[in-house]
Amino acid sequence: MIISKKYTALFLTGIISAMTAISVQAQTKQSITPQFISSKQAGNITLEAASKPFVPQNLGRSTKPNEGGSRGIPTGIDNRIPMLSRKYPWSAIGRIQGTTADAKSYHCTGSLIAENLVLTNAHCVIDPETGELSKQILFMPNVIDKRFQDVAEVEQVIYGTNFKDGSGISSNDWAIMKINQPLGRKYGYLGLKSIPTNTLTQNPKAFFFVGYSGDFPTEKYKNYFSAGKGWTASYEAGCSILKEDSGFLLHDCSTAGGSSGGAIIGVINGDPYIVALNNAEAKNLRTGQDITNFAVKISTIQESLSNK
């Protein structure tokens, strides 16, 4: 059996009290090189201010990710369905577009967790093989078939790991990006909730996952989307956290390159909370099938930021 571990996600920072004030602008005109700060350098900060969901007035809410236009897509094509809704909470999930140090382009998934903070993976902003930092990172909320209203640049990134231990995989593979526009005021943001692993595993099929996977929309959807793969997020209901192993949470959500940094979400008292952060999958290279998928614990992020 041949196993490869794939990563795809960006990492930007901005933890309220640790960040400087940002300027508000309708469009991004300049090119910002993000400032990178390790969680150890960030000081004793918490995510309390970014832990609760926020829904902007008049945006509207929807429990249906494909609300707003079925495009005539028949049911039963895939266990994943396209995220087509412009309402909350789908509005708070977006595509991260990065440029590497050697000018290569890549993408990941990120979620607004405050008005100017986006949660994703460290390996999306730091190359886990070379340690090189991304020279530019953009965040585009609620991209549907390459259509979006706003683009923000990342100013700062707080990261959990720089992969210098040489393992190429880390249970501290998270990043918080500070963007140069308060897009959370317009699109809303998700809450964060640290839940004990035994509680997560005792609630099978209770979670859902959204990510800009590089294999979605699949070929069966090709007649309904023009932008190609990775430009419309997929939604999968009925995901489970299977167990904890070596500091990772193992889950069964469908993932692929581009879905790194995607949020595993649970609805608690009617509100959406990120309960884990997808960061990697182990695949059988002969069949292409997932062997298992990895996620970062929310408690890992909180403890790293508080330097416990």
Considering the chains and any ligands shown, give keywords for the structure.
6% helix; mainly beta; globular; ten-stranded mixed sheet; disordered N terminus; Thrombin, subunit H; six-stranded antiparallel barrel; single chain; 308 residues; 3 helices
Instruction: Kindly identify the CATH topology.
Output: Thrombin, subunit H
- Termini separation comes to 39 Å
What number of structural domains do the residues give?
1
Number of strands: 17
Radius of gyration: 18 Å
- The percent of residues in helical segments reads under 10%
| SSE order | EEEEEEEEEHEHEEEEEEEH
Shape: globular
List unreliable stretches of 5+ residues: 1-28, 72-77
- What is the average of the pLDDT values? 83
Can you tell me the CATH architecture? Beta Barrel
CATH class: Mainly Beta
Taken as a percent bin, the fraction of beta residues is 25-35%
Largest sheet report: 10 strands, mixed
Tally of individual helices: 3
Multimeric organization: single chain
Class computed from helices, strands and strand pairing: mainly beta
Summarize the structure.
Helices cover 6% and strands 32% of the residues. The chain has 308 residues and is mainly β.
